[in-house]
Each structure stands twice: as structure tokens, then as C-alpha cells.
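Postdoc handover notes: sequence design on the structure in folder B. Input C-alpha cells:
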């Protein structure tokens, strides 16, 4: 029999497979599971266990930002214009969200 904790997690957890690499994306705020108002600005953490990752990545997700204003400041031909796989996966749940890596070099 499956434990109720496995059927209904107490904290948000997603297992990710992006470009054949696996990782865990998780949050420490249980309100993300039950209160849509907490989905304004929140924090998620990502760990892949890959050699290039030395610590858990701390991501800030902003679902109400004006991502088109940020795009105007970027070089349209620059390397930042290309979306990262993990960010695209996050946007399947929160379309149009702005994702900050908080000083960590994006590695996934």
C-alpha cells in the first residue's frame, strides 16, 4: 500500500528529465500546493548531482513580472536569448514566469 505522504506530498517536488539529464526541483513552502496566491514570487531549489553542480541552485520565480521589458534590455543575438531547458520546464507550470538564478551560473 502506498503511503499517503507519497500520494500527497507536503512540499512541492518535481523530478525533472531535461535533455537526458535528471534532477530534482523542489520548494520549501507548502503553500505552493494549496494557495494559488503564493505563486506570485516564490523560491525553488534544484539539484542534479551532476559534476558541474557544487551546491543546490536557488531559483526565484516571478509569475507576474513583465518579461517583455527584460527582453528589451538583452542583446537579441546574445547567448542569454536562448532559453535553458530547466527554465522551459518550469514555464510548463508557470507560463511567462521570469526565473532568476540568483548569481549562480545556469548549468542545466
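Designed sequence:
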Amino acid at each position: 500500500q502506498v503511503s499517503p505522504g507519497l500520494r500527497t506530498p507536503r512540499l512541492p517536488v518535481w523530478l525533472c528529465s531535461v535533455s537526458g539529464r535528471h534532477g530534482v526541483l523542489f520548494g520549501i513552502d507548502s503553500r505552493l500546493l494549496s494557495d494559488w496566491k503564493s505563486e506570485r514570487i516564490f523560491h525553488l531549489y534544484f539539484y542534479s548531482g551532476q559534476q558541474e553542480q557544487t551546491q543546490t541552485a536557488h531559483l526565484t520565480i516571478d509569475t507576474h513580472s513583465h518579461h517583455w521589458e527584460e527582453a528589451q534590455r538583452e542583446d537579441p543575438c546574445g547567448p542569454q536569448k536562448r532559453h535553458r531547458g530547466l527554465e522551459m520546464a518550469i514555464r510548463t507550470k508557470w507560463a511567462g514566469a521570469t526565473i532568476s538564478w540568483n548569481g549562480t551560473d545556469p548549468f542545466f
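Context for whoever picks this up: The helical segments are 4-7, 67-73, 85-90. Don't rerun without checking with the PI first.
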